[in-house]
Write a structure and sequence with these properties.
Elements: H1 2-19, H2 42-45, H3 63-72, H4 76-79, H5 82-85, H6 87-94, E1 101-105, H7 111-120, E2 125-130, H8 144-150, H9 153-162, E3 171-176, E4 188-194, H10 198-202, H11 204-207, H12 210-220, E5 221-232, H13 252-261, E6 265-270, H14 300-309, E7 314-320
């Protein structure tokens, strides 16, 4: 009996092993590789989006190097004035670049004109602009023949400038204030008035030269064009009648006021051409200083003192014609 029961138990166990397969192990998922995010562009670190970045960098033009080469090529007598007139710094401050059309007010003997012509180059244009014909008799030192010659100045000046034979120089044009040719309207990138305002101010009260001159400056400029002013500056505490322009000096606030009234915006100013050693008194004029040295011709000690001061204290103002 015990034997039979043992056999039955073994058969039951075998049946269970065959009829109930072992459970399958849980499926093993392949290890997950964390997603790799692309690195952020370098511009994002500085807050610049890719849309703001140029597709290809634009190479810097070496305007400073070109201007320095032009300055280095000038005669020694011209270079002797660089410490006082700072042409490299001044033109850079005003944003003057090769290829521009630049109007130079009162070019005179061409000290700045020759520099500008070589710097603007053959793709640029230098336009001389002179005082109206009516102003010349007011100075009192010009003879009738010289005044008559000024009547054809706008026709004569381009030829005179060509005679300088500036290497790779600009094209030349000219006009007289109060007689701006219609085809020059909105043609200029910049107008420079370098030591050119005081006589317009000096005779303005009686003859009204300043506002028409500024109207021509506004008209000749393209929208967004630059006006650069360098002018002998009177200290604020000096009497207004002394700072009328007759002594060469005028006040900064007067210049800013009149330019704003003419429609310009003051966007920057600089002390590039400042000279704190220039402290004129009520009896002094700007022409006591170099290069004129008026009044010290027979006084070596006074002449030496004026030379030690150097050229005048000057404001340097940058205006724009609004877009």
């Amino acid at each position: 009996m015990k034997s039979r029961m043992l056999i039955i138990a073994c058969l039951a166990s075998a049946f269970l092993l065959v009829g109930c397969p072992a459970p399958e192990p849980p499926p093993v998922e392949p290890p997950q590789t964390p997603p790799v995010e692309p690195p952020e562009p370098a511009a994002a670190e500085s807050g610049t989006t890719m849309e703001e970045m140029p597709a290809t960098p634009t190479p810097d033009h070496d305007h400073a190097g070109h201007l320095q080469a032009v300055l280095d090529a000038q005669p020694e007598a011209v270079q002797a004035r660089y410490p006082y007139r700072n042409p490299a710094e001044t033109l850079a401050f005003f944003g003057i670049e090769p290829g521009m059309t630049v109007v130079e007010m009162l070019p005179g003997g061409g000290w700045y004109s020759r520099i500008l012509s070589g710097y603007l180059g053959p793709d640029g244009t230098l336009v001389g602009a002179n005082y109206p014909q009516e102003i010349w008799p007011l100075f009192g030192f010009m003879g009738e023949e010289r005044i008559a010659q000024m009547a054809t100045w706008s026709d004569d000046w381009p030829g005179q400038a060509l005679a300088w034979e500036v290497e790779n120089g600009a094209d030349y044009q000219a006009f007289v204030l109060g007689a701006l040719p219609a085809d020059m309207t909105e043609s200029a990138d910049a107008v420079l008035l370098i030591r050119a305002l005081h006589n317009l101010v000096r005779f303005d009260a009686e003859h009204g030269f300043l506002d028409p001159a500024l109207a021509d400056v506004y008209s000749v400029l393209k929208p967004g064009g630059i006006v650069g002013v360098v002018q002998h500056e009177a200290r604020p505490e000096m009497p207004d009648d002394w700072a009328s322009g007759a002594n060469g000096y005028i006040k900064r606030d007067l210049v800013v006021e009149r330019f704003k009234a003419a429609g310009f915006e003051l966007v920057a100013e600089s002390d590039i051409n400042a000279n704190p050693l220039d402290q004129p008194g009520a009896e002094d004029s700007v022409w006591r200083l170099p290069p004129s040295l008026r009044g010290s011709e027979d006084d070596p000690e006074l002449r030496e003192a004026m030379q030690a001061i150097g050229e005048s204290h000057r404001m340097t103002l940058k205006f724009i014609k609004p877009e």
